Amino acid sequence: MTTTTLIGRRVVLRPLRSGDFAQWREVRTANDEWLTKWEPRRIPGGPDVINDRGAFSLRCHSREREWQTGAAFGFGIFVGGQFAGETNINSVQRGPFQNAYLGYWVDERQAGNGYVPESVVLVLRYAFEQLGLHRVQISIVPRNAASRRVVEKLDIRCEGTAVRYLEINGEWEDHMRFAITAEEWAERAASFTDDWL
C-alpha cells in the first residue's frame, strides 16, 4: 500500500483508502451539483463509486496500481483530519516529455479557504522534486472561475486555450491551459513554500 503523505501548513495529502468511503460519499453527495458540471459524463451502467463501497474500493486499488506503475499519483485532501477533496497527477509521460497533468476539486463548504492552492503547491513540489518531472499542466474550463482562481493565486502561466479539448458533462469544452516547468519551479520554490507551506 502506498504510504506517501504530503504535509502542508493546514492540509494533509495522502492516497485514499477503502476506509475513507463514508467521508468520500458524504462529501461527493453533498457536492453533486457543485462538481458534476465540471467532470466527464458518467458512463451509464458504470460503477457507482459515490454510493457503492465495493466500487469505491476498486477505485482505490486502481489508483494504487497507478502509483506502482508511475502512471498517476492521486491524493485525498484532508483538513483537520476530515476529507475535503482530491488532487492528482495524471497521465505521466516520461521519455523526452517528462510531463503530467494536475487536477483538483474541493468540497464547496471548504472553498475559498486557500486549501486547494496549498495542496497544489505540495503536489507540484512532489512532482518536480520527487518524481523528477519537467512540466506540469493544468487545464480549466474558462467559465470555471473557482478553478481559475487557484492558478491565479499561484500565478501559474497561461499558455492559451485549447478548443473543444475535453468532454465535460456531455459537451466538448474549451480549456484554458496553464503550465509550470521545473525551471520555473526552481526559481519560485522558496516563495511558494513561504507563501503556502
Mind explaining what this structure looks like?
37% of the residues lie in helices and 31% in strands. It has 6 helices and 8 strands; from the N terminus they run E-E-H-H-H-E-E-E-H-E-H-E-E-H. Strand 1 (6-7) and strand 2 (11-14) form a beta hairpin. An 8-stranded mixed beta sheet has the order 1-2-3-4-5-6-8-7, with helices on both faces. It is α+β, with helices and mostly antiparallel strands. The two termini are 26 Å apart. The protein has one domain: 3-Layer(aba) Sandwich (Aminopeptidase). Helix 4 packs across helix 6. The model has no long low-confidence stretch (mean pLDDT 96). The longest helix has 17 residues, at 53-69.
How are the SSEs ordered, and which strands pair?
Blueprint: E1 6-7, E2 11-14, H1 21-30, H2 32-36, H3 53-69, E3 73-79, E4 82-93, E5 99-106, H4 115-130, E6 135-140, H5 145-154, E7 157-168, E8 171-181, H6 182-196
Parallel strand pairs: 5-6
Antiparallel strand pairs: 1-2, 2-3, 3-4, 4-5, 6-8, 7-8
Helix pairs in contact: 4-6
Mean pLDDT: 96
- The percent range for helix content is 25-40%
* CATH topology name: Aminopeptidase
Instruction: Label the overall shape.
Output: globular
Distance between the termini: 26 Å
Strand order of the largest sheet: 1-2-3-4-5-6-8-7
Q: Can you count the helices?
A: 6
Q: What structural category characterises the helix and strand content?
A: alpha+beta
The proportion of residues in beta strands is 25-35%
Keywords:
about 200 residues; alpha+beta; Aminopeptidase; 8-stranded mixed beta sheet
